[in-house]
Amino acid sequence: MGEQRHGDPGTPGTVERASDDSGKYAIENPGLPPHRPRTTDEDPRVAKRAERQVSFMFILSIVGTIIFFVGYFGVGQLPLDETNMDLIRLQNWLLGLGTAFAMLGIGMGIVQWGRALMPDHEWVEERGEVVTEEDRSDAANMLNDIIDESQIKRRPLLRNTLIGALAIAPLPAIAFLRDLDNTGNQSDDPAQNFGVERMRHTMWDTGTRLVRDVTGTPIKAQDVTIGSALHVVPDGLLDLEHDKLNQKAKAVVLLMRLNPEDMQISDGREDWHVDGIVAYSKICTHVGCPIALYEQHTHHLLCPCHQSTYDLTQECKVVFGPASHPLPQLPITVDSEGYLVAQSDFLEPVGPAYWERDPRPAEERGA
């Protein structure tokens, strides 16, 4: 019982200690590897060539930003619509390439700067709290050392091209943000030009026929079978010459039919369907992706972007995913010829629910 078995941690020498009272370590600190100077450290001509390379990348970033603005303000001022695909493709190419060159130029330039020109010595420095005036002075000296080591003072070409690239690089983002709420259809009422108010109204109106997307064919109730899912737009939308894409983005709906016995209908919506035929906005209430996947057996609608799932039998209630609001329902009925028509516009805003979705009009909410 008293014997110590071979391999017992208590046996002297079995386990190597990291250190002992003498301060010795089992494995000596090998220290930093020897510094190997780069060619840019030894040859001024190579360093100058690296400086020109970095400056070229910063200039490339500036050119990329200019290309972006040519596409955004130059081509964008031409009469763009979905029938002029050549101009749309040209603008997309200019915007994409311009943004890529603007961002990659700065990133690659800074990486090359640090790799070839900035000091690459390794060192370890213990640092304490900055509490005294002497410590603050040391911190200021450290910042000055960093500036000196970056060589930004003695390499004006690098400094000036970097400043130029950084100065105009954010401008494309500012242009995008400026037009996030600009569809070209401004109202005299400022409340109608921003946010939820613009998404409250679409081309749907009382008596507007539901027609198939692309073909524009009107739909009779008898043609919609149980389990089918049709992509539908309001009659007249496909004939628009201007603003067709913006109107379609708000008005497009999914039309489906299910057994009325499977439907859970809330008060006030009893007549919003036609014998189990229902119409819901196709725009996901999370970030606005188009919903196109309908699972007939579960009656679930799935958004392919972030997997938000809506239960059609529960008036498109969210049952999974990041969406926080049900899909807005379009009240429908049939006209005298048996064609499906809208009873009205959507009674709540469509699209992403970044705001509180109060279904009441602005005047009723006191807005």
Automatic annotation (TrEMBL):
<feature type="transmembrane region" description="Helical">
    <location>
        <begin position="54"/>
        <end position="73"/>
    </location>
</feature>
<keyword id="KW-1133">Transmembrane helix</keyword>
<keyword id="KW-1015">Disulfide bond</keyword>
<protein>
    <recommendedName>
        <fullName>Cytochrome bc1 complex Rieske iron-sulfur subunit</fullName>
    </recommendedName>
</protein>
<keyword id="KW-0472">Membrane</keyword>
<dbReference type="Pfam" id="PF19297">
    <property type="entry name" value="QcrA_N"/>
</dbReference>
<keyword id="KW-0479">Metal-binding</keyword>
<keyword id="KW-0813">Transport</keyword>
<keyword id="KW-0249">Electron transport</keyword>
<feature type="region of interest" description="Disordered">
    <location>
        <begin position="1"/>
        <end position="46"/>
    </location>
</feature>
<keyword id="KW-0560">Oxidoreductase</keyword>
<dbReference type="GO" id="GO:0051537">
    <property type="term" value="F:2 iron, 2 sulfur cluster binding"/>
</dbReference>
<dbReference type="InterPro" id="IPR014349">
    <property type="entry name" value="Rieske_Fe-S_prot"/>
</dbReference>
<keyword id="KW-0408">Iron</keyword>
<comment type="function">
    <text>Iron-sulfur subunit of the cytochrome bc1 complex, an essential component of the respiratory electron transport chain required for ATP synthesis. The bc1 complex catalyzes the oxidation of menaquinol and the reduction of cytochrome c in the respiratory chain. The bc1 complex operates through a Q-cycle mechanism that couples electron transfer to generation of the proton gradient that drives ATP synthesis.</text>
</comment>
<dbReference type="InterPro" id="IPR017941">
    <property type="entry name" value="Rieske_2Fe-2S"/>
</dbReference>
<comment type="similarity">
    <text>Belongs to the Rieske iron-sulfur protein family.</text>
</comment>
<keyword id="KW-1003">Cell membrane</keyword>
<feature type="transmembrane region" description="Helical">
    <location>
        <begin position="93"/>
        <end position="111"/>
    </location>
</feature>
<dbReference type="GO" id="GO:0016705">
    <property type="term" value="F:oxidoreductase activity, acting on paired donors, with incorporation or reduction of molecular oxygen"/>
</dbReference>
<feature type="domain" description="Rieske">
    <location>
        <begin position="272"/>
        <end position="341"/>
    </location>
</feature>
<keyword id="KW-0411">Iron-sulfur</keyword>
<keyword id="KW-0001">2Fe-2S</keyword>
<feature type="transmembrane region" description="Helical">
    <location>
        <begin position="157"/>
        <end position="177"/>
    </location>
</feature>
<keyword id="KW-0679">Respiratory chain</keyword>
<dbReference type="GO" id="GO:0004497">
    <property type="term" value="F:monooxygenase activity"/>
</dbReference>
<dbReference type="Pfam" id="PF00355">
    <property type="entry name" value="Rieske"/>
</dbReference>
<keyword id="KW-0812">Transmembrane</keyword>
<dbReference type="InterPro" id="IPR045603">
    <property type="entry name" value="QcrA_N"/>
</dbReference>
<dbReference type="InterPro" id="IPR036922">
    <property type="entry name" value="Rieske_2Fe-2S_sf"/>
</dbReference>
<dbReference type="GO" id="GO:0046872">
    <property type="term" value="F:metal ion binding"/>
</dbReference>
<dbReference type="GO" id="GO:0005886">
    <property type="term" value="C:plasma membrane"/>
</dbReference>
